[in-house]
Amino acid sequence: MDSEGCVGQAGIQQPTKLHLHETGRDTLMGRLMRRFWQPVALARDVEKGKAHALRIMGEDLTLYRGESGAPYIVGGRCAHRCTVLHTGVVRGEEISCMYHGWRYDGEGLCTDIPAENRPRPDPVRIAAYPAREYAGLIFAYMGGGHPPAFDLPRKHEFESGERMLFAKREYWDCNWFQQVENSLDAVHLSFAHLWGVAGQFGASISAGGEIPKLEYAETSSGLRQIATRSNGNVRISDWTFPNNNHIVVPGPTKQSSWGHVSVWAVPIDDARTMRFRIYATEPVDEATAERIRGDLDFEPTEHAQALFSGDLSGLSDQSIISAQDYVAVRGQGAICDRAQENLSSSDAGIIMLRKVFLRELTAIAQSAQPKTWSRLENAIDLPPPPAPTGVG
Ligand code: FES
Ligand SMILES: [Fe+2]
């Protein structure tokens, strides 16, 4: 996908071809994306003293947790003879390769070469990236130099202490940018989220398939989307640059107030994405919490055959949302060919999103300063729908 044909009727002149979907280290989008903290793993999956393989934006990495509990992210392969490092042994805050014992600290510096009998003139290094934990997720900063303040991922709803948090990860077998675009497409709620089965989310928001009036505005952190349907049904979402959305979704029971979800579409590579989601709900008892954890285990990719046959039977309300989005977005192809699109006025959010990305990529291409995004100064309470119908 390049700039030709991807902005549609609102096309803007571009000095170079700007590929939107590619995030390899040497691509323009890869350079842009690496300016932001990205979630890369569920914190609960990484035990003290254990290492795991990761692939993020086409880079193979090793994530391990030192014996202090601190997470570290270093390169995927040993500098000696290139075996994978996640099979290594964690000792203290360092990791030793299983092949010949070369040892690395959390900054990627090789601190020991056990079988070497002469000093090396230069230190050996592998890649290393800052890591930190937040709301049940481990984040990495994969750019160069000092990382930005850990600001954009934070939400008041995750820090107030008034809600229970549940973190989830899904693997989707398609490009991340399609999923980002889906976040700026409020009209799909009136169709995709009534498709197959009307879960509480679709039934409550879509007002029986009514087409909303759309408003979009650029904010300090991204784009605000307002979709207004009749009878005071106003849905507001705050999308944060470059790949995070903040929305409200049904609570764990029909009596619950609506919860908050923050979801990131993180590229594994060009054709695969990890979706990380933090779900913040009013406090629930342990049995309900256990049910939520079970619901969050749903992986739409594993059910692709049934879902593409239109079979959404037996899914929880939360899983129905993922399943419907998955069918719509994966249905565009592993990497959507946007040259085949015909955008319409209802795609105003997608057109605005692409313009913002193209502006930022142009800045990167011209070695100019892209926008400095910051957490919303004017954060508002996202309103739930006025009268959930309780379907589902
Ligand atoms: S390949 Fe890692 S120590 Fe030899
Ligand atoms: Fe959706």
Walk me through the structure.
The chain starts with 27 loop residues before the first helix and ends in a 27-residue tail after the last helix. It has two domains: 105 residues, Rieske Iron-sulfur Protein (3-layer Sandwich); 210 residues, Naphthalene 1,2-dioxygenase Alpha Subunit, Chain A, domain 1. The strands form four sheets. A seven-stranded antiparallel beta sheet has the order 12-18-17-16-15-14-13. Strands 2-3-4-9 form a four-stranded antiparallel beta sheet, with no helix packed on it. The radius of gyration is 22 Å and the shape is globular. Helix content is 18%, strand content 26%. The protein is built from eight helices and 18 strands. With 392 residues, the chain is of the alpha+beta class. The structure holds FE2/S2 (inorganic) cluster (FES) and fe (ii) ion.
Return the domain count. Answer: 2
What's the story with the biggest beta sheet? 7 strands, antiparallel
Order of H and E elements = HEEEEEEEEEEEHEHHEEEEEEHHHH
Query: Roughly how much helix do the residues carry, as a percent range?
Result: 10-25%
Q: Give the CA-CA distance, first to last residue.
A: 38 Å
- Low-pLDDT regions: 1-16, 388-392
Strand content: 25-35%
| Widest beta sheet: strand line-up | 12-18-17-16-15-14-13
What binds here, in terms of ligands, is: FE2/S2 (inorganic) cluster, fe (ii) ion
Classify the fold: give the CATH topology of the largest domain: Naphthalene 1,2-dioxygenase Alpha Subunit, Chain A, domain 1
Mean pLDDT: 92
* DSSP summary, beta strand count: 18
Main structural class: alpha+beta
Task: Based on the coordinates given, report the CATH architecture of the largest domain.
Answer: Alpha-Beta Complex
Regarding CATH, which class of the largest domain? Alpha Beta
- The number of helical elements comes to 8
Radius of gyration: 22 Å
Shape: globular
